[in-house]
Specification:
The protein has nine helices and 14 strands. Strand 6 and strand 7 form a beta hairpin. It folds into three domains: about 60 residues, Winged helix-like DNA-binding domain superfamily/Winged helix DNA-binding domain (Arc Repressor Mutant, subunit A); about 200 residues, 2-Layer Sandwich (BirA Bifunctional Protein, domain 2), CATH 3.30.930.10; about 45 residues, SH3 type barrels (Roll). The strands form three sheets. Strands 3-4-5-9-8-7-6 form a seven-stranded mixed beta sheet, sandwiched between helices. It is an alpha+beta fold.
């Protein structure tokens, strides 16, 4: 496996360019048989290779998600220490939940090239063509210091916005509770779910980022955006790595009780303050002016009846 990862790294770092087999042999101190064997193993994992006589070999597009490429050298303490990559699953959140039940996987990242039952909040489907976008979930053990679900939802949105900007410079905005916007289209969404095991409570942070392709208009209920349209070609693995680094940092901030820093990071990217909105929450409609977005209390509204209310993300959605 070490030789396979070594060859995969070299081809990935030269993405867009060919590598001569002789070059791979020389740089890695490997025989031709070892290099050819490593390339066969890479293809066996589902990654196609493109070969041209006289030019060598390179990773064919799309480059598949790979656990080694995701985690190598990643400067994280908790989120993204380990990863498992699948071709197709029902839902990455469901796989992450299963991993949490099995135990020993705090911070594990689950990715998939395709989902057959990907979902967003309130039972909405998450639509993405195979091999085009980031589909991922992170499982987090609550432990002795529970992570507030509301704060993690807010943090995930901020982490995606920051990670995308770091990866390709695209300026993202945030819309409560879980939308990441690029210009007027939805670029990414977050679904945080909770579950319990004999060892205690867990969280799954699921997210999808439209990197190469937005879903067709007829498949979604609001305008969507993709990074490739706005920022040109960007590698999915690099987007995911940047998001994981930022999510790890914000999870640490939540553990340390640094909610004001999270609050400021959210508000700086949110255009909702002082806007008038209507929210469906726990079977009722609430209309008012947005006063704030709190990492612990949710959306804070000055209602038309004079009351100030706080609406939690897991039970609310903006309808107007």
């Amino acid at each position: 496996m070490e030789e396979v990862n070594q060859i995969l790294e070299r081809m990935y770092d030269r993405r867009g360019g060919f590598c001569l087999v002789e070059e791979l042999m020389r740089d890695g101190g490997l025989t031709r048989e070892k290099v050819e064997g490593a390339m066969a193993a890479i293809e066996a994992k589902g990654q196609a290779l493109e070969r041209l006589p006289g030019r060598g070999v390179k990773l064919a597009e799309p480059i598949r998600m790979d656990a080694h490429l995701i985690t190598r050298g990643l400067s994280v303490r908790r989120v993204g220490r380990d990863a498992v990559c699948f071709g197709e699953v029902g839902s990455t959140n469901d796989v992450a939940r299963g991993a949490g039940v099995a135990g020993g996987c705090d911070g594990l990242v689950i990715t998939a090239e395709a989902q057959t039952a990907g979902r967003g909040r309130h039972g909405r489907a998450w639509v993405s063509q195979p091999g085009r976008n980031v589909l991922a979930s992170v499982v987090l053990e609550q432990g002795t210091g529970p992570l507030a679900t509301e704060a993690v939802t807010i943090a995930a949105g901020v982490a995606i916005a920051e990670g995308v900007h770091q990866a390709c410079g695209a300026p993202c905005r945030l819309k409560w509770p879980n939308d990441v916007l690029l210009e007027e289209g939805k670029l990414a969404g977050v679904l945080v779910e909770t579950f319990s095991t004999a060892r205690g409570p867990w969280l799954v942070v699921g997210f999808g980022v439209n990197v190469n392709e937005a879903p067709p208009a007829e498949a979604v209920d609001r305008p969507a955006a993709a990074l490739r349209t706005h920022a040109g070609a960007v590698e999915r693995i690099e987007v995911l790595r940047s998001v994981l680094v930022r999510l790890d940092a914000w999870v640490r901030a939540i553990e340390a009780g640094q909610f004001e820093a999270l609050h400021q990071a959210w508000v700086s990217r949110c255009g909702m303050i002082n806007q008038r909105v209507t929210v469906q929450s726990q079977g009722r409609l609430v209309t008012g002016r947005v006063l704030d977005v709190s990492p612990l209390e949710g959306l804070v509204l000055a209602c038309d009846n004079g009351q100030t209310v706080s609406l939690h993300a897991n039970a609310s959605t903006i309808v107007g």
